[in-house]
Design a protein that fits this description.
GMP Synthetase, Chain A, domain 3, 21 strands, alpha/beta, binds adenosine-5'-diphosphate, binds zinc ion, 9-stranded mixed β-sheet, Rossmann fold, 2 domains
Length: 433
């Protein structure tokens, strides 16, 4: 089923016309209501009337995370507070939290976006939606909740944490779909196994996982561990929260709600737009938001766009999985390192689990990077020969991908703290010296 055929299956020409009309209205509204952005436009010498085609979006200045920080907390709100019905805030993975205000219309659009995503994953009114994203200022819980309510599913507002209780409810309430971060899904899968429950004994058939970067190997592990089909759902507080894009059953990129959020990919260094298919920084312009519209917002997320009709029937432009965020990118000994690269290496070894942590430090004026990773259950670290051999193999594989040496330390299964939300994969001690 398709939730909104008119928008999700529109032909290119129709969609572009919708986008242009909404873009023009957004730019005019922003110019009239947000003095900070109006000043940016004046400085760039662009007026709302200059936006005559979709390509003219390139005349408009970007909004960055620094702009949000400079206007903390509500300087970029365009609607008066009496029209703001909800405040959410970013989880604060990087830097100061960002405060976002929604009008009722914005809330409805957010629910609509997640409703499209859930429908894409084959979820409907007869299903029980088990929502284990954190509820509160973080957009995960309430966003998934709004979408599940919009499609008329039975909502279980679990929030995150208390994993044993999650498993109990999942069994007793016969949850059909799980919504949480991929790292928490893995934690739940582990708890299911520990409880002696076989995946096929659960009713669960799909999961919508997002809010943090994850790899195909992580997807495979979750699908196997819970006996489900795992979908990727993307979003960010500044744009709306989860639901900006979701992957359908074809598992070939995430369909962007492009009538609501207009995507561009730019080269993060030159800020020049890149063609469809080329990897760069994702930039979004909200087309209907009125509480806090975002024009050419630089997400810092790295991915590429895919066009053409999807086998599921939708025509909406898709985004690839997010390879990482430029914020996450570590520069170690002058080399760029993304945690997802390390994860890809770990996944190649059956002896290892995806419970890991990367430690970066500086010793004698030189950067060091160390990977701590857990062995699979049943393997012990006191077999010295086995451990030494594993260490050589893993360090070799890491060097191949990262181009720098990375030490490896193995831990027994169950040693590292488990994620209940966004996993913290990196500890960069260099900052604290
Ligand atoms: P932050 O994590 O910056 O404090 P948010 O809670 O709003 O703020 O999270 C949004 C960010 O989470 C996105 O910019 C992106 O980096 C990451 N994210 C969200 N969904 C996904 C996904 N499906 N895959 C990869 N990364 C994601
Ligand atoms: Zn599709």
């Amino acid at each position: 089923m398709i939730w909104n055929k008119e928008m999700e299956c529109a032909d290119r020409e129709t969609m572009r016309a919708v986008q242009l009309e909404r873009l023009q209205a957004t730019v005019k509204y922003e110019y009239e209501n947000v003095p900070y952005y109006a000043a940016k436009m004046d400085k760039a010498g662009v007026k709302p009337e200059d936006i005559q085609t979709l390509e003219d979006i390139q005349l408009l200045p970007f909004i960055t995370k620094e702009d949000l920080a400079a206007n903390y907390p509500t300087g970029l709100f365009a609607a008066p507070m009496k029209d703001i019905v909800r405040i959410q805030s970013s989880s604060g993975t990087t830097g100061k939290p960002k405060i976002v205000g929604y009008t009722q219309g914005d809330m409805d659009d957010w629910g609509e976006a997640v409703a499209r995503g859930l429908t894409m994953c084959g979820i409907g009114a007869n299903d029980v939606a088990h929502i284990s994203y954190g509820y509160g200022l973080f957009t995960g819980g309430l966003g998934a909740h709004a979408g599940a309510e919009a499609i008329g599913a039975t909502v279980l507002p679990m929030s995150s944490g208390n994993t044993a209780r999650q498993v109990m409810f999942m069994q007793d309430m016969k949850s059909d779909v799980l919504c949480c971060t991929p790292s928490y899904a893995l934690t739940i899968a582990e708890a299911v196994e520990k409880a002696g429950i076989k995946p096929e004994e659960l009713q669960l058939r799909a999961g919508l996982f997002g809010a943090e970067p994850w790899t195909q190997s992580m997807r495979d592990k979750i699908e196997k561990g819970l006996g489900i089909r795992a979908h990727d759902i993307y979003g960010l507080t500044e744009i709306t929260g989860p639901g900006t894009a979701t992957s359908c059953i074809e598992n070939n990129g995430m369909h962007i709600c492009e009538d609501l959020f207009y995507p561009e990919i730019v080269d993060p260094n030159t800020l020049k737009p890149l063609p469809v298919g080329e990897t760069g920084e994702l930039v979004f312009t909200t087309l209907c938001k009125r509480g806090m519209p975002m024009i050419r917002y630089r997400t810092r997320d790295i991915c590429y766009l895919m066009d053409g009709k999807c086998a599921c029937g939708r025509t909406s432009i898709r985004m690839s999985r997010v390879f990482g965020r430029t914020d996450d990118m570590l520069i170690v000994k002058g080399v760029n390192v993304f945690p997802s690269q390390v994860e890809t290496v770990i996944a190649k070894f059956e002896e290892l689990t995806l419970n890991y942590k990367i430690l970066v430090d500086r010793k004698h004026n030189s950067d060091t990077i160390e990977l701590m990773v857990e062995f699979a259950d049943g393997l012990e670290i006191d077999d010295i020969e086995f451990v030494e051999n594993m260490k050589r193999r893993v360090e070799h594989a890491l060097r191949d991908i990262l181009q720098i040496g990375c030490k490896v330390r193995f831990l027994n299964a169950g040693t590292l703290p488990r994620s209940e939300g966004k996993a913290v994969r990196v500890e960069d001690r260099r900052k604290y010296e």
